[in-house]
Amino acid sequence: MLLALLASTAAARPTASPLASSPSPWLREAASAPVRWRPFDPATLAEAKRTRKPILLDVGAGWCHWCHVMDETSYADGEVIRLIGERYLAIKIDRDLSPDLDAHFQRAARRLGSNGGWPLTVWLTPDGEPYHAATYIAPQAMKELLRTLADRAAGPSSLAPEAPEAPGSLEVARPGVLSVRAAEAVGAALLRFQDRANGGIGARGPKFPDGAAIQLALALADRRGEAGELHQFATRTLDGMARGGFRDHVGGGFHRYSVDPEWRVPHFEKMSYVNAALLSAYLDGWRATRRESYREVARETVEFLLSAAGSDGTRGGFHATQDADNHPGDDGDYFTWTQAELRAAAGEEAVRFFDARAQPNDLAGVPDRNVLRAGPLHPRSLIERLRAVRAKRRAPRVDTVKYAAWNGMVIVAMLEAAAALDLPAARAAALLALDRFLARDPGMHALASDGKAASPKDEVRLDAAAWLGLAAIEAHQATGRPAYLVAARSLVTRTDRALWDPARGRYRESTSPYAPPPSIGDNATPAPSAIIALLLSRLGALTAERSCLDRAEQVLIAFASEAADAGPSASAWARAALEHTTPRIQAVIVSRRSDDPRAAVLRDAARAAWRPGHLVRSHGADAKRILPYPLGPGGAARAYVCGPSACAPPTGDPARVKELVETWER
Questions:
Q1: Does residue 427 contact residue 55 with C-beta atoms inside 8 Å?
Q2: Where are the alpha helices (H) located in 112-210, listed in sequence order?
């Protein structure tokens, strides 16, 4: 009976789904689903108004485990399929491809009493007004809701009205005072909310990683010149994540989050932005402490980002995500191991190293699979043997869409890694990705796997512009090429034109009508307003453009009052504020050509140094531009390390450059 119903449903609908050509793999998969899913577009919304059918909206992503579960249970149930087909228009949204729509409906869900999350299931009137919201819904409950909520949509009086925005919620909070003390206050909040046993924020699960908080803590500890509580918070967190199952000990990198406070068992999806943020955090940890374990974790994270699951190889760009599982009932099988599998792959050494058990009970319903946990340093030969075995397994799907903001985050981290760890492959991949984005419309949100734009051409996003701009700044520091500074300036100019709100002294988050109100609170990624302030501050320091410095200060001040109440979620803002208000150290590299090999060695030495907020500026052979920084004897490249008061004597010794960056005007 069910097969007949599915067959008749499939035969009744048009063969060509509008989702079949979507850049999102998750939406393309939905094109062949039993439910006839449509895109969120004017044509679908107009059809709902014309037919007076309510809308069933599903917001999720390919990496979302419970989104797949709902597709495989509720949306595969014959009665659910019939009810949706008869009474609703069904819309599916990829939250990564359409983050503004996701934010809009998450806010609506909270107004309707749901906590939000993914999958997000929302009922809309034919006119597009949300009136009921939930997350995962099991088949029987789904059938009951589909029946009762279709009737509620028929009469406006039965709808739960959308609550108006709270007074002043679209306004910037009263500007506060910008100072080092404001950044220190966020650091104090990190200590109040920290998990003193396991590291990270909060003593309960689930626990999400926060690279910005770690970087802020290390920068504040460096400013104080002591290995105090903030330093301990950072190292405790880095150590906890490195030991736990949250880290992919075989493939490198990290999963999305831990379901428990001890970083033991993760949700297994892997996100490019998580790995970018933690790569930068471990690099800062390595430079600040010289602990070999941090260097090793960073190197393995680079390996993951350079793998087929992480990047597009010779074409350039970093993939968005890797799914957690392959099929119904799969709960991280690709990433986990039975004791017998470990023994067969690498002998008793592997069983002992990971303390693998026959019945570990790490995962509900899968009693024999071990989530690997171990010390932070791995025997290389052991990991290589396990990688070879895992490579024969069917790997979870990779979403090959390349999001501009997430790529910017990865590019920054990979260029930092190239200098700190001497990894030329990381530098090459980062520059290839950046050049690919800059060659296209630099304001775009995403590139599809075929290189075509995967977002509206006229859409400008603050996160994309800010992170690509920071990536261009980092590329200039790595290469000395002036063109990257020009690219960063162009991104700022375009963002100013499209998103600057002079009345409120801040940027809007995108040109989309569904864009959320700007906030300084970090979420899965750092707050875009904090990142644009960081970009403006660095660009102004490198180019001596007062307008950039003034705009950075204006943005930071606009959110200073909100940051004071935001606690740890204002970590990215606090890092930008600390960097902007602390006198900078700059290493000025002068050479006849930007591609002078000796200049490159001096640049890398300066960039590998541990001095939070320092910048590396390069000048070519134009004598007017390099004065008062003359070349060395015979035109040799030289480095001038300068603070706010004076410059150190010039040097051509890379070790001396690194030493001066770390110690000058302390």
A1: no
A2: 139-154, 180-193
> Distance between CA 320 and CA 433 in Å, rounded?
13
Closest CA to 318 of 336, 306, 303, 330: 306
**Residues in a beta bridge with 447:** 402, 453
The pLDDT of residue 489 = 97
- Tell me the HSE value of 357 on the side-chain side, using a 13 A CA sphere: 9
Q: Are 178 and 553 in contact (CB under 8 A)?
A: yes
Nearest to 280 by CA among 390, 137, 420: 420
Residue closest to 202 by CA, chosen among 261, 243, 254: 261
pTM greater than 0.85 (yes/no): yes
The Cα–Cα gap between 411 and 399 comes to: 18
DSSP, collapsed to helix, strand or coil, labels residue 81 as: helix
Alpha helices in 422-527 (DSSP H): 424-439, 462-479, 482-499
Give the list of residues 6+ apart from residue 660 with CB closer than 8 angstroms, or none: 587, 639, 641, 648, 651
Q: How far apart, in whole angstroms, are the C-alpha atoms of residue 433 and residue 440?
A: 11
d(CA 122, CA 163): 16
Instruction: Quote the tokens at residue 200.
Output: 């990270």
In sequence order, what are the residues at sequence separation of 6 or more whose Cβ sits closer than 8 angstroms to the Cβ of residue 19? 27, 28, 30, 31, 37, 38, 39, 92
User: Tokens 């119904």 label which residue?
Assistant: 328
pLDDT for 444: 75
Q: Please name the amino acid found at residue 46.
A: A
Give the type of residue at 611.
R
- 3-state SS class at 603: helix
Exposure of 355 by Cβ count < 10 A (0-12 exposed, 13-18 middle, 19+ buried)? exposed
d(CA 454, CA 23): 6
CA dihedral 74, 78, 84, 87 (to 10 degrees): -140
> What residue ranges in 74-177 does DSSP mark as E strands?
89-94, 120-124, 130-134
- Residues in the chain with pLDDT values less than 50: 1-14, 156-173, 623-624, 626
> Look-up: residue for tokens 């060395």?
632
With CA atoms as reference, report the closest residue to 409 among 400, 399, 417: 417
The Cα–Cα gap between 644 and 655 comes to: 22
For 594, residues 6+ apart whose C-beta sits below 8 A from its C-beta are: 479, 480, 481, 482, 618, 620
Look at the block and give the residue holding tokens 């509720």: 74
Nearest to 213 by CA among 578, 570, 581, 535: 570
Helix, coil or strand: residue 402: strand
DSSP annotation of 493 reads H
The owner of tokens 């679209």 is 170
CB-CB neighbours of 367 under 10 Å: 13
What pLDDT shows up at residue 13? 47
**For tokens 């001596």, what's the residue?**
544
Using DSSP, state whether 617 is helix, strand or coil. strand
Q: Give, in order, the Cα–Cα distances in Å from 395 to each of 65, 372, 519.
A: 15, 17, 37
Q: Collapsing DSSP states into helix, strand and coil, what is residue 149?
A: helix
Beta strands in 157-307 (DSSP E): 257-258, 266-267, 270-271
- Going by the DSSP 8-state scheme, the letter that residue 457 receives in this structure is T
Edge-to-edge, what's the strand order for the sheet holding 270-271? Answer: 270-271, 321-322, 398-399
pLDDT tens digits, 305-358? 999 999 998 899 999 999 999 887 788 999 999 999 999 999 999 999 999 999
Q: Which residues pair with 641 in a beta bridge?
A: 587
Q: For residues 137 and 142, what is the distance between their CA atoms, to the nearest angstrom?
A: 6
